[in-house]
């Protein structure tokens, strides 16, 4: 177990910018390397005529790993 994984086990994490490129990478890496993270909250704002829900749905469609991890939310 890596030190990053050990640190986040049992923790709650808030991520801003999760729909951007680096945010997507961060969320995926966090969930993959720390399966025992307690909760991950993402802060999403409406942008470019898209609602928050639409932006999250687009984020989840971006990668297969996101679909597998979050398929119950879409």
Automatic annotation (TrEMBL):
Report the GO molecular function annotations.
Answer: alcohol-forming long-chain fatty acyl-CoA reductase activity; alcohol-forming very long-chain fatty acyl-CoA reductase activity
For this protein, what is the EC number?
1.2.1.84
Regarding the membrane, this protein is recorded as: Single-pass membrane protein
Superkingdom in the source lineage: Eukaryota
Using the UniProt record, name the top-level EC class of this enzyme in a single word. oxidoreductase
Listed GO biological process terms:
long-chain fatty-acyl-CoA metabolic process
Give the reactions, separated by semicolons, that this protein catalyses: hexadecanoyl-CoA + 2 NADPH + 2 H(+) = hexadecan-1-ol + 2 NADP(+) + CoA; octadecanoyl-CoA + 2 NADPH + 2 H(+) = octadecan-1-ol + 2 NADP(+) + CoA; eicosanoyl-CoA + 2 NADPH + 2 H(+) = eicosan-1-ol + 2 NADP(+) + CoA; 18-methylnonadecanoyl-CoA + 2 NADPH + 2 H(+) = 18-methylnonadecan-1-ol + 2 NADP(+) + CoA
List the subcellular locations: Peroxisome membrane
Thioester reductase (TE) domain boundaries:
15-64
Identify the keywords attached in UniProt to this record, alphabetized. Lipid biosynthesis, Lipid metabolism, NADP, Oxidoreductase
Q: Show the GO cellular component annotation of the record.
A: peroxisomal membrane
Family that this chain belongs to: Belongs to the fatty acyl-CoA reductase family.
Q: Which function does this protein serve?
A: Catalyzes the reduction of fatty acyl-CoA to fatty alcohols.
Protein name per the record: Fatty acyl-CoA reductase
What is the originating organism of this protein? Pavo cristatus (Indian peafowl)
